[in-house]
Design brief:
Elements (H helix, E strand, L loop, with lengths): L2 H19 L3 H5 L2 E6 L5 E6 L5 H28 L15
Antiparallel strand pairs: 1-2
Helix pairs in contact: 1-3
Length: about 100
């Protein structure tokens, strides 16, 4: 993997996790049902059922968080082990 690909993947994963954090989990997973009598023998039932369970949502969030940690570790390793041929004047005023 090229470093630019890892950086793009890290940004993509962070954006996905940020979007997932903004989801109102309580509203997303609440099952709502309404029952109305239409006639003596027939009821009309209206229900809103979530597309996934909370555990599925949590598992997906955990998966992407783990991927983000792994790609970040890869980038940090590359950062500490890579030397560059940067112009010397970039460090002219730098003191350790």
């Amino acid at each position: 993997m090229k470093l630019f690909q890892a950086l793009l993947r890290r940004k993509e994963l962070q954006n996905k996790l940020d979007r997932m954090k903004t989801i109102n989990v309580k509203e997303l997973f609440e099952v709502k049902a309404q029952r109305k009598n239409v006639t003596e023998n027939i009821d009309d039932i209206i229900a809103q059922v979530p597309k996934m369970t909370f555990s599925q949502f949590n598992a997906e969030y955990d998966y992407y968080a783990k991927q983000l940690r792994q790609i970040d570790a890869f980038i940090q390793q590359a950062n500490y082990t890579t030397e560059t041929d940067a112009p010397k004047d970039l460090l002219e005023d730098y003191k350790q």
